[in-house]
Amino acid sequence: MFIFSKMTQIPVKINNKNPRLASYILSQYGGPDGELGASLRYLSQRFAQTDKSGIALLTDIGTEELGHLEMIGSIITQLTKGEGAKSFDRYGVGDYYIDHANGVYPASASGVPFSAAYLQSKADPIADIMEDMAAEQKARATYDNILRMCDDPDVTSIIRYLREREVVHFQRFGELLDRLQSKIR
Amino acid sequence: MENNRQLTAQQLMRKVSEAWFYVTDLNLYLDTHPDDTRALRMFAEACENAKACTEAFEKRCYPLTVCSADCDSDWEWLVGVWPSQKMA
Ligand SMILES: [Fe+2]
Prior knowledge:
The structure holds two protein chains of two kinds.
Chain A: H1 19-25, H2 27-30, H3 35-45, H4 52-80, H5 85-90, H6 94-100, H7 125-149, H8 153-184
Chain B: H1 9-32, H2 37-60
The structure holds fe (ii) ion (FE2).
């Protein structure tokens, strides 16, 4: 089960407003390599894992990703808090305003709504873990792209942190893969 | 924990989140290294510290999980900074 705690892995405190940057970061909320897809992928795949380490790791990383989803939502909210239609338009994201105003909607930076087609669940531990390792690399690469676009130090420090977590997750999934493969041998 | 009295809510929150982050990081490591005795010792210590930091924060500021909410006179759970808000 999950118990909500009124805290994030690192505090999210953004002082500037920037609806355009928010619309880029939205991709890590509901985009193809975002945190929603990551958490759903791991929390779904775990049901078919048989190795105890595998069940635990997918549960624990899936849970951490849910926390990251919340942090991304918080960044987007703070970057757009109090900004109106004209501001969104000036920042070039008037189309987002028309559909969602200041709401956080799970979609990619290019406006495609979230889809479960971004992930798989094959009941094949090796196939699933290999997908997970690729997913971590793609999430890391997306954070790299966001860092190239971002010049707000409050945002950059959190994005760097989240990027680093993807590297750690990749490492842990790699260790799990070794463990599963050595059991087959 | 004596020096906690001088810390602001924001500083106390930073200590809480750092402490729980350390727990999470060790947790993932132990999932794939369940026999690492040094990491097991570090984990026990990390959990003790995280609980202490949480208690210090909740005593001074507001409840982080629902069962820490005081319900003597009103619903204290509503108090505090939610993920949609930023700390003052
Ligand atoms: Fe991740």
